[in-house]
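Postdoc handover notes: sequence design on the structure in folder B. Input tokens:
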């Protein structure tokens, strides 16, 4: 599934406190309702030049809206 991110992380850090990103693309809701409730998650990407790609980097950065709490078990 490709998620339509509005942009890259801007280092706001308020998302860790308030649980909401400054972008209004509802990723925080998607993270909590879809990803955290899934029984399994499969990550598939191509590694090129020791990098997993911008889409995975966006996803990884945006998980911070959950603060320092574990996203999945």
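Designed sequence:
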């Amino acid at each position: 599934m490709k998620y339509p991110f509005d942009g890259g992380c801007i280092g706001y850090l308020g998302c860790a406190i308030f649980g909401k990103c400054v972008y209004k693309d509802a990723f925080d809701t998607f993270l909590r309702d879809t990803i955290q409730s899934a029984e399994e998650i499969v990550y598939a990407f191509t590694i090129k030049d020791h990098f997993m790609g911008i889409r995975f980097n966006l996803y990884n950065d945006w998980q911070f809206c959950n603060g320092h709490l574990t996203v999945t078990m």
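Context for whoever picks this up: Residues 54 and 60 are 10 Å apart (CA to CA). Don't rerun without checking with the PI first.
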